């Protein structure tokens, strides 16, 4: 008799204390749960063994990446419905199965074990980062982490990001498209930095060269871009040559800590500082301060998390750390501003683009879903599933104010404390020589 789905919904209610808000379709073809709700498809009972061995987010992520779990229906609606019951309990879950004292829970866990089948659990999917040893955020470990995320094929990223090849939050107007919104974001950064003909710009974490090209082509800047990704650098250099800008742009495979040819007139750091880590953030701020000339501007575009009541309780998201951004860390925007100022910068403007990132991520997910067969061929089924889940879940996190993204404009003060900023700078069009 095919009844696995019915048994699972009953067991889930016992374990979670409330009904699952989604419908379940099990490997034996059975279904149970609220009609019309998104369907959680459990293709193989190996998924249960993963969840029993690693309760919470990591177990679910492994089953998803391996293709043992899927969602039929609205992905965003399903993630929204399940977040409070499953993912947000992950921090409270234990690393392995432990007996519980409540007899009802013991019985439910026993029933789940019977459904899960023989142990041990299957190994993690190959897309999972193997645990790194050694000190966090050494140059070698950072290079390995960056390679894991970015060296998965430029064609794959072009499919997801579109022709702009900008992998950070776009800047939207009503009715705009992704390419226009990304161009507008790059232009916003250039205006905030008050770039002009001949200025030296350092683009930290330059990606596929989009910011460097825009600054050189539209503002006449001379740009040095640094990245730890060999694949990104090769793609950027090819684009720059095609644009005829090799005399204005240099792309280096280099750690920002090794840049020694300052001073620069301006520095852009767009979506890079999340990789720096709390143990290195003051060093990051000190290095960028030293590379700027007095009166030079820094535009730091960075994802932020909400502050914790007890900051020592902060832990890195298990799924993101294992599959997406190894060793990545988020900080509250206030902590970032404080660290920049401790290094000597004066913070002149902070602009939140939280809603803009949610819109951007939804467009990326749509691009991925539209090109799904190609994406799978370019990488692997597991890698494509990682990107779909992380981008969709991140879009919801931005929409619900779980995380945000901010552009911090900071200045290295000139002699006597001058910032060389106009009195009213918010339109980013005024002459930047005043102040």
TrEMBL record:
Q: S-adenosyl-L-methionine among the record's keywords? A: yes
Q: Which PANTHER family match?
A: CYCLOPROPANE-FATTY-ACYL-PHOSPHOLIPID SYNTHASE
Locate the transmembrane regions by residue number. Answer: none
Pfam hit, one: CMAS
Domain named Polyketide synthase-like methyltransferase is located at 156-396
Which example biological process does GO assign this protein?
Answer: methylation
Q: Which domain of life is it from?
A: Bacteria
Leading EC class: transferase
Q: Which organism is it from?
A: Streptomyces poriferorum
- Entry keywords, A to Z: Lipid metabolism, Methyltransferase, S-adenosyl-L-methionine, Transferase
What EC number(s) would the UniProt record show? Answer: 2.1.1.-
Question: Matching SUPFAM superfamilies, A to Z?
Answer: S-adenosyl-L-methionine-dependent methyltransferases
List the protein's name.
Cyclopropane-fatty-acyl-phospholipid synthase
- Please verify whether the record's keywords include S-adenosyl-L-methionine: yes
Chain segments carrying region Disordered:
115-141
MF (Gene Ontology): methyltransferase activity
What family does this chain come from, according to its entry?
Answer: Belongs to the CFA/CMAS family.
């Amino acid at each position: 008799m095919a009844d696995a789905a019915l048994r699972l919904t009953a067991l889930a209610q016992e374990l979670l204390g409330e009904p699952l808000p989604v419908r379940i379709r099990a490997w034996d073809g059975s279904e149970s749960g609220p009609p019309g709700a998104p369907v959680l498809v459990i293709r193989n009972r190996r998924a249960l063994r993963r969840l029993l061995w690693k309760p919470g987010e990591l177990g679910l992520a492994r089953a998803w990446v391996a293709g043992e779990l899927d969602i039929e229906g609205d992905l965003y609606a399903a993630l929204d419905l399940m977040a409070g019951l499953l993912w947000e309990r992950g921090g409270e879950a234990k690393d392995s199965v432990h007996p519980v004292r409540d007899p009802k829970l013991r019985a439910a866990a026993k029933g789940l074990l019977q459904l899960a089948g023989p142990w041990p659990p299957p190994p993690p999917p190959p897309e999972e980062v193997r645990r790194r040893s050694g000190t966090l955020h050494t140059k070698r470990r950072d290079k390995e982490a960056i390679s894991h995320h970015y060296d998965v094929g430029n064609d794959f990223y072009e499919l997801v990001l579109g022709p702009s090849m900008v992998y950070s939050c776009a800047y939207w107007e009503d009715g705009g498209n992704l390419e226009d919104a990304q161009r507008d974001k790059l232009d916003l950064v250039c205006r905030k930095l008050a770039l002009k003909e001949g200025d030296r710009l350092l683009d930290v974490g330059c990606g596929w060269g989009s910011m460097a090209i825009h600054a050189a082509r539209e503002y006449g800047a001379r740009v040095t871009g640094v990245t730890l990704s060999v694949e990104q650098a090769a793609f950027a250099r090819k684009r720059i040559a095609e644009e005829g800008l090799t005399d204005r742009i240099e792309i280096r495979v280099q750690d920002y800590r090794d840049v020694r040819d300052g001073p620069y007139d301006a520095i852009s750091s767009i979506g890079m500082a999340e990789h720096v880590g709390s143990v290195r953030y003051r060093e990051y701020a000190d290095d960028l301060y030293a590379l700027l000339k007095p009166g030079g501007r820094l535009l730091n575009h960075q994802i932020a998390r909400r502050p914790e009541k007890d900051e020592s309780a902060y832990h890195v998201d298990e799924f993101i750390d294992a599959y997406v951004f190894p060793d990545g860390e988020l900080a509250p925007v206030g902590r970032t501003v404080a660290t920049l100022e401790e290094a000597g910068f004066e913070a002149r403007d902070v602009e939140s683009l939280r809603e803009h990132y949610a819109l951007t991520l939804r467009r990326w997910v749509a691009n991925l879903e539209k090109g799904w067969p190609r994406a799978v061929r370019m990488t692997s089924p597991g890698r494509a599933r990682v990107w779909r889940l992380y981008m969709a879940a991140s879009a919801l996190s931005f929409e619900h104010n779980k995380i945000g993204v901010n552009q911090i404009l900071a200045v290295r003060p000139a002699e006597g404390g001058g910032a060389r900023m106009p009195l009213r700078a918010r339109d980013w069009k005024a002459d930047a020589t005043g102040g």
